[in-house]
Write a structure and sequence with these properties.
68% helix; five-stranded mixed sheet; 5 strands
Amino acid sequence: MTILRDLSILWSLFHILILFILLYRSRYSQRKTFIMTGIFMGPLALLNVVGLILYGAEFMGKIFVLTCTLPSLLFFWLMAENRKGQFYFTFCLADTVSYWIIVVTNIADFYFGGQQYILMFVGRLLLFPLIEWIAYRYIRKPYRELQESVKGRWGLFAGMTGLYYLLLAVISNYPVVVTKRPQELPAVILIMLLMPMTYATIFAALYRQRQLLINQRIESHLREQKNTLEARLDNQQNIRKMKHDMKGYTATLSGLLASGKTQEALEYLAVVDGEMDALLGQFCANPYINATLVYYSRKLEEISAVCNVNVQLGDEELPYVELCQILANGMENAYEACMKLEKEKRQVSVRMQYHKAYLLLRIKNRCPDDLHVERGAMVPTSKTEQGHGFGLPTIKEMSERIGGDMVCYTENGFFVLDVMVKLEK
């Protein structure tokens, strides 16, 4: 009946891969990932089964980490989109869950199946598809969202799960398989019960951190809306003031024209036009984008920061909700960075213009000399960065929502944020 044992091991190895691929993020397409996995992992699994037949389960169990775990770890690491803590945690998660099933079915077969391997085979035949269904139905989507939104603590959790995997491997196989050490069975059972509780604690911590990030984003979004509304209200108040002053302007113009002083009237109109632009803070024709620029330019002026704005937009229709969020987050980051600098170093520039079918936005600000961000580097997600933090993921999200992209980097003492959006004609 050892054929059932060998088949159950081959079945287990195959389904460990499926469980891992369900949760893991490859840099390649799903089809290419499956093909490359089959090419590499298929022969590796068969070699381990051949070793099992030739040398026995006890011997192969002791060297399984070397013959299967480490080679597969290296292979998937090379294909991973993210090679940091998220990858290692996912790898250890799939391996420990699968190893847990293997150990449980092995113990159950020894004590209740009469070592005929029937209970082992049937248990693995049913449990692995069940776990995969649960992973696909309830875990895959939120877990991938966690990988996207939560950037910290993965290294610590990966270390915990890696040690847990080694603990399972050692306690179930050394010095001999656990079924030959019945006096240690209670300790093994307690460890097996501890594993689901450990993972529940880890996922609860990750979920709380994700919720905190979501709440911060909501708070940031509400603050941006408040700032935009305040800027528009300020504009409305300026407009009312301008209307009130128009009576005086009209009286002066009427007097000049009545006296035949046409040239003086034109010069006076030019002065009035300049005063109105200054009063309204007119940077562009789009009222929403202009309101955002007005609010932050005045905010920067309050801290004595030099702010140069060059926005070449007309009154064309634009995705102003997303663009205002991008502008607000970018200029808020620039404002916070300037606050940490000496007054004479506080400089910000904003440029927005078209280039062919693209709308280009660049926000530059002076930054501390020790801040260094490579072009294309991962976007930071917390205020641990020196003046640039939580707003950047929001900018990236808003850019992608309207079919664009963003990149940030440091250059010659400036932090540069570039956003490019492709617009439909």
